[in-house]
Amino acid sequence: MKILVLNCGSSSLKYQLFAMPEEAVLIKGTVEKIGSDDAIHAYKTDGQKGETVSEILDHREAIRQVVAALTSPEVGVLKEAAEITAVGHRVVHGGERFSLSTLINGEVKQAIRDTFDLAPLHNPANLLGIEAMEEVLPAVPQVAVFDTAFHQTMPMEHFLYPIPYVLYQRHKVRRYGFHGTSHRYVTSRVPALVGRDVTGLKVISCHIGNGASVAAIWRGRSIDTSMGMTPLEGLMMGTRSGDIDPSIHEYVMEKEGLTFDELNSMLNKHSGLYGVSGITGDMRQIVEERSKGNTRAGVAFSMYTYRIRKYIGAYAAAMNGVDVILFTAGVGENSPLLRRSVLERLTYLGIEVDDRANEEGKGERLITTPNSKVAVCVIPTNEELMIARDTNSLVTGLSTTPDRDSISFDT
């Protein structure tokens, strides 16, 4: 089977084509600047790389170009589009309706529309990709894999906010959490490193990238996570503020003469590492500037690691202990300095870091000594593979190609 995985943004899309069940990546690529006359389509296979610049005015045309590339003799990964068995889509927000991935039908698409208010930057783009694919390959079944689904196991006392309950009843104001596909994948890899089934473990998963979240995972199920109703809550991030006193909003709007949209932009795009350092939201540049003695870069780095450490401590308390702490995503996987800075003040948990494994190791690995009471892992995430697996499982469970408007889903 050939499974195409799509992650659509408002002006971009990322894709990977998998051969399943071998889980081999045949090609991966991106289309950027959709909506312009100089859109960039870049791809990579085992044997070659390619890039084209052309007019791509919408997602439908972007997907047409992707399918054309997959089937071109020069690329050689498919002979014809009919070889694509199914398409899996990353969808950021599934609200309360989805605790599992699901085949896409009319009801599912409407449910995604119903969450536009909860994820205005992501879900409209995700739906654009679904509808564009329907036009380009109408006979191919599609699957939605929701970032929020993994966190639907949180108990009510963890996901509710301490505000009038009627706001949850009327408007579903609650914690949803994100990065669920990543947290689910990396947690599934823990047994291979520690030799114990995840159902017997207390795991704290740290997805640390430009967007960042921590999840408390008890017996394989998410019981709490740092992101909230939106991806703005929680850790300090590359350009997002994370947790702040909500009274700051009104105060800053009045003092600076900001509109709500301007405030929202400030909190999402001009805060975090970027806001404090005044330089960048990229951790690599923060570390470089810190090493040169840049005071604000140093403060930004210290704030960032402190808040990760604080959430780890909170979740260790929430689970009455921790067996495994894991780091994943761009910063978590690639910054030994960040991991060391977070862990060096968690020695009360009995953590003993193996400095060589932390500094020099590659790929999936333990970075603690055999004597450490808590195992600490680095696990590169693979959300696309998780989407491909879910898509493959749902589609191979069908005896015939479904009528997408007749597929039911759990509510």
In short:
The chain has helices spanning 59-71, 106-114, 123-136, 156-159, 165-171, 180-194, 247-256, 260-269, 272-277, 283-291, 295-318, 329-334, 336-343, 355-360, 383-396, and strands at 2-8, 12-19, 24-32, 36-44, 49-56, 84-91, 102-103, 142-146, 202-208, 212-218, 221-225, 324-328, 365-366, 375-378.
Describe the structure.
With 411 residues, this protein is an alpha/beta fold. The chain is built from 15 helices and 14 strands. The strands form two sheets. It has an eight-stranded mixed beta sheet, with helices on both faces. It has a six-stranded mixed beta sheet with strand order 11-10-9-12-14-13, sandwiched between helices. Strand 13 (365-366) and strand 14 form a beta hairpin. The model is unreliable at 399-411 (pLDDT under 50).
Supply database-style keywords.
single chain; 411 residues; alpha/beta; six-stranded mixed sheet; disordered C terminus
